[in-house]
Amino acid sequence: MTKRSFLALAIAAAAMFAGGPAFAAGDAAKGAKVFNKCKACHAAEKGAKHKVGPTLFGIYGHKAGTIEGFNRYKGLVGADWTWDEAILKDYLKDPTAFTKKRTGKNSVMTFKLTKDDEIADVIEYLKTLK
Question: Is the pTM of this model over 0.70?
């Protein structure tokens, strides 16, 4: 490999790994559509009643395990985190493993979002629910 080829390869590699977040920003409108998968268990409207799972209106930035009026499941009671982008990303990928790792308790939410773009979109949608 010539010096020039090596330099070109090094610059290309640096450009590929530099800048830009590892987790791309989502699209709230797309997230609203993806959230349809969640509606069997979760409401998202202001003032909505809890379903099998808690209403998710206002969840972004809220302390985990403290949804008023929802006490059906104890997996997140005593949680020491706030629902932010990083936490939601990990949680939505695998709620059961996340809850077990963070609290030592089991989660009844077994539904997973497996696509990073859908996770990013749902997070952006949840941010709008305030």
Answer: yes
CB 82 within 8 A of CB 62: yes
Structural domains in the chain, CATH included, are 24-128 (1.10.760.10)
Contact 38, 95 (CB under 8 A): no
Question: What is the enclosing helix (H) or strand (E) of 118?
Answer: helix 116-128
Asked whether 93 and 114 are in contact (CB, 8 A), the reply is yes
pLDDT digits (tens, 9 = 90+) for 16-42: 444 444 556 899 999 999 999 999 999
Give tens-digit pLDDT for 49-93. 999 999 999 999 999 999 999 988 888 988 999 999 999 999 999
User: What Å distances lie between residue 55 and 19, 39, 41, 48, 49, CA to CA?
Assistant: 36, 10, 9, 7, 7
